[in-house]
Specification:
The complex is a heterodimer of chains A (207) and B (444). Chain A is α+β, with helices and mostly antiparallel strands and 207 residues long. Chain A contains 4 helices and 8 strands; from the N terminus they run αααββαββββββ. Chain A folds into 2 domains: 14-50; 54-203, no CATH class. Chain A is elongated, with a radius of gyration of 30 Å. Chain B is 14% helix and 44% strand. Chain B is built from 2 helices and 25 strands. Classes of the chains: A alpha+beta (207), B mainly beta (444). At the A-B interface, α1, α2 and α4 of A face α1, β2, β4, β12 and β25 of B.
Chain lengths: 207, 444
C-alpha cells in the first residue's frame, strides 16, 4: 500500500546524515582550497607581470633596442667592465625635428648621445647633446649641458652575472638580469618577487 | 486512485549546492583566463612588433640588393646615372610556424645634398596588428676608398717591416680606408713600425680588438667595424671586346740624353683604340724589343694570358691619356701580372685613375704565388680592381692609387699612397650603395 510505504521513509538515519555531512565538508574544503590557491596564483601572476622586474625588463629592452638601432656605427664606447661585459655603454645618434630626409642629411655628425649605466642596482639611461664630435679613438666627444636621466630598471643583479652590454661589431648585446627575490626585504611576500633575465641584440644602422 | 509512486515533498539541496560551486569556479576560471589572455596578448604584441621590425629590416636589405644588382659591372665602361636605379617596390611574405610577417618597400629618389644624389628606401613590415616602418637614405659610393679586400691585409714580412698607408696629396683631409670583409683574427695585420693614417675596418660582426693586429710602434688613424659587407662583383670585359684587333707594336729606338750613362730605349706607342693580345710584355733587352710603352689617348687593352713588365721597364700614360687594362689567365700562370724590380708604371698627369687594371675572374694565382706583384723598388700609379687577386707590393715599392681585391701583402718599406682624389669619382668604376641615414617609425 502506498501510504505505508511513505510512512516508512519519514527520516534519514544518523549514519546517512553523518556520511552526507562528511562528504559535504570534504567537498567544501576542496573547493575552498582550490579557490584559495587559485587566488594566490592569480595574485602572483598579476603582480609579477604588472609590477616589479617584468615591466622593468620589458621597458629596458624596448629603450635599448630603440636607441641602439638608430645609433651611428662610427663609434661606440663602453665602460665599467665586469665579467667579460660592460655595465656602461655610450651610443651616439642623429636627432632632428622635424624628421625629414633633408633634415637628416643636413645633420652631418651625430648630435645626441645616450648613456646606459648602472648606479647601485639601478640601470639608468641618460640622454643629452653632443657639443663636439670626434671619431678619434684616443679622444672622446664632448657633451653639452645636463643630460636627461631616467631609471630603466631596478634590482639589477650586478653580482656574478656578466656585464650587461657586449659590443659585437655593429651590434650590441644586452643581457640584463633583474632580481628582487634573492635579497627580498623581510616581510615581502614571495608572490611579489622574481628573478629573471632578458636578452636582446640590436644592430646600429646609421652611418 | 493513487499509484504506488508518489512525488517526494522533500526539497533537494544538491542542485543549489552544485550551482553555487559551479558559479564560484566559473568566476575563478574567467579571472584566470583573463589574466592568461592579457599575458598572451602582451606576448603576441611584443612578438608581432619584433616580427614586423625584422620584416621591415628585410625589406631594406632586399631593396639594397636589388639596387646593387642594377649597378654597372666593373670594367663594362658604363657610367652610372639615375636611370640605373630600380625605382620600384616589392613585397614578400614569410610565414613561419609562429607568425606571419610581410614587408613591402619602395625606392624613390631622395634629396640632393652636397652634390650627391640620395635614394630613399622606405620599407614597411607588418605582423599581426603591428606595423613598423624603416627608412634608409643611401647614396652610391666608389669603391676607390683605399684598400678593400675580401680576406686579409698582411704587413708582417719581417720584424723590420715598415708599411705606410698615406693619403695623396699628403695634406688631404680624407685619409682613406683599409677595409676587409673578413672577421677572422688578425685579418688586418699591421706590422711593427707601420703607419696607417686612415681608417681600418673589419667586416660586419667583427671585432676590432681581435680582427686588427697592431705591432710594436705601429699606429692607425681609427678602427671600426664596417656597416655592411662589400660586394665584389666580377669584372667584365666591355661589350664587343672579342672583336678587338690584335695590337701590332710600332716602336722606335732612342738613346736618352744622359751624358754620363746613355741608355738605349726602345719605345713602343699604343694610340687610342681597343686592342687585345695574349701576352702583354715590356722586355728589358732594348736591343731586341721595346723597353718602354707609352699610352697616348684612350686605350683599352685585353691581355688574356699574362702581363709582364720586366726589370727597369716603363709603362707611361701620357698627359690627357688613359689606359684600361683587362687581365685574364687563359693558361693559368702562377702570376698573371708581374712588374719586376725597378719597373715603373706611371701616369704623367699624376692621376691614378688614368690607369685602371681589371682582373677578370680568371685572374687568380696558383700556390703561394701572388696574382699581381709589384717587385722591389717599383713605382705604380693606378687603380686595380681584381676580386680574385692577391696583390704583393715588395720591398721599397711605391703604390699610388687604390686597390680592391682578394688580399694584399705589403713587404718591407713599401708605401701605399691612397689617391684621395679617387673619392670624387662617383659614377664610374666599381660602386656600391652605402646607407648614410637610417630611422624607423612605429606606424599607429
Amino acid at each position: 500500500m502506498t501510504i505505508a510505504k511513505n510512512a516508512a521513509r519519514k527520516g534519514l538515519t544518523l549514519i546517512e546524515l553523518l556520511v552526507t555531512a562528511v562528504a559535504a565538508v570534504v567537498v567544501v574544503l576542496g573547493v575552498v582550497s582550490v579557490i584559495a590557491y587559485s587566488h594566490q596564483g592569480y595574485n602572483r601572476l598579476f603582480k609579477r607581470t604588472t609590477l616589479g622586474v617584468v615591466p622593468d625588463a620589458y621597458q629596458a629592452r624596448l629603450w635599448f633596442d630603440t636607441i641602439v638601432r638608430r645609433a651611428t656605427v662610427q663609434r661606440l664606447d663602453v665602460g665599467s667592465p665586469r665579467n667579460n661585459g660592460y655595465d656602461e655603454l655610450y651610443v651616439y645618434y642623429y636627432y632632428v625635428d622635424p624628421l625629414t630626409p633633408d633634415s637628416m642629411l643636413a645633420q652631418i655628425v651625430p648630435n645626441k648621445y645616450a648613456r646606459f649605466w648602472v648606479s647601485g642596482d639601478n640601470l639608468l639611461l641618460s640622454r643629452g647633446d653632443i657639443q663636439r664630435w670626434t671619431i678619434e679613438l684616443d679622444d672622446f666627444p664632448e657633451f653639452a649641458g645636463d643630460p636627461f636621466t631616467i631609471v630603466l630598471a631596478k634590482d639589477v643583479d650586478v653580482g656574478s652575472t656578466p656585464g650587461i652590454f657586449t659590443p659585437q661589431g655593429n651590434a650590441v648585446r644586452i643581457v640584463l638580469t633583474l632580481d628582487n627575490e634573492t635579497d627580498a626585504a623581510a616581510g615581502v611576500s614571495k608572490i611579489q618577487t622574481l628573478r629573471m633575465t632578458v636578452t636582446s641584440t640590436a644592430l646600429r644602422h646609421n652611418n | 486512485m493513487k499509484t504506488g509512486k508518489t512525488k517526494s515533498k522533500r526539497r533537494g539541496m544538491v542542485l543549489p549546492f552544485v550551482i553555487s560551486i559551479a558559479v564560484v569556479l566559473a568566476i575563478l576560471g574567467i579571472g584566470i583566463l583573463q589574466l592568461g589572455f592579457g599575458s598572451r596578448l602582451v606576448a603576441a604584441v611584443t612578438m608581432s612588433g619584433i616580427s614586423a621590425r625584422s620584416a621591415a629590416d628585410g625589406g631594406i636589405s632586399q631593396a639594397l640588393h636589388q639596387m646593387t644588382q642594377a649597378l654597372p659591372p666593373p670594367g663594362s665602361g658604363a657610367i652610372f646615372n639615375d636611370s640605373w636605379i630600380p625605382y620600384s617596390s616589392g613585397e614578400l611574405s614569410f610565414p613561419s610556424s609562429n607568425s606571419v610577417a610581410t614587408y613591402s618597400y619602395e625606392i624613390t629618389k631622395g634629396p640632393v645634398y652636397a652634390g650627391r644624389v640620395y635614394y630613399l628606401i622606405t620599407s614597411t613590415g607588418t605582423s599581426g596588428r603591428e606595423t613598423r616602418r624603416v627608412n634608409a637614405l643611401t647614396t652610391v659610393q666608389t669603391m676607390w676608398f683605399g684598400i678593400g679586400v675580401q680576406d686579409t691585409v698582411n704587413v708582417h714580412s719581417s720584424p723590420d717591416a715598415e708599411f705606410t698607408f698615406l693619403p695623396f696629396p699628403e695634406n688631404s683631409d680624407d685619409k682613406g680606408s683599409v677595409r676587409t670583409n673578413s672577421i677572422a683574427n688578425s685579418a688586418i695585420w699591421v706590422g711593427p713600425n707601420s703607419t696607417i693614417q686612415g681608417q681600418v675596418l673589419v667586416g660586419p660582426g667583427g671585432n676590432t680588438e681581435t680582427g686588427i693586429h697592431e705591432g710594436p710602434n705601429s699606429s692607425i688613424g681609427s678602427s671600426g667595424v664596417a656597416q655592411s659587407e662589400l660586394d665584389f662583383p666580377p669584372a667584365v670585359l666591355p661589350p664587343a671586346a672579342g672583336s678587338w684587333p690584335t695590337w701590332s707594336p710600332n716602336y722606335v729606338q732612342l738613346v736618352n740624353e744622359d751624358p754620363v750613362a746613355p741608355v738605349l730605349i726602345t719605345r713602343a706607342l699604343i694610340e687610342s683604340g681597343d686592342y687585345q693580345l695574349p701576352n702583354f710584355s715590356i722586355e728589358k733587352d732594348a736591343g731586341t724589343t721595346w723597353t718602354e710603352v707609352r699610352i697616348r689617348g684612350g686605350v683599352r687593352l685585353h691581355a688574356s694570358n699574362e702581363v709582364r713588365f720586366y726589370e727597369g721597364t716603363k709603362l707611361i700614360i701620357e698627359p690627357g691619356s688613359a689606359l684600361e687594362l683587362f687581365v685574364g689567365t687563359d693558361a693559368g700562370p702562377t702570376s698573371p701580372l708581374t712588374a719586376y724590380n725597378g719597373s715603373e708604371i706611371i701616369t704623367m698627369d699624376r692621376e691614378s685613375w688614368d690607369l685602371k687594371i681589371y682582373g677578370l675572374p680568371s685572374c687568380t694565382s696558383t700556390g703561394n704565388s701572388p696574382t699581381i706583384a709589384l717587385h722591389n723598388s717599383g713605382v705604380f700609379w693606378g687603380v686595380i680592381y681584381a676580386p680574385s687577386a692577391n696583390l704583393v707590393v715588395d720591398n721599397t715599392a711605391d703604390f699610388y692609387g687604390g686597390f680592391i681585391g682578394y688580399s694584399l701583402t705589403m713587404m718591407n718599406n713599401a708605401v701605399f699612397h691612397y689617391d684621395t682624389r679617387l673619392y670624387d669619382l662617383q659614377n664610374e668604376g666599381p660602386l656600391f650603395f652605402q646607407i648614410n641615414r637610417w630611422w624607423e617609425e612605429v606606424v599607429p
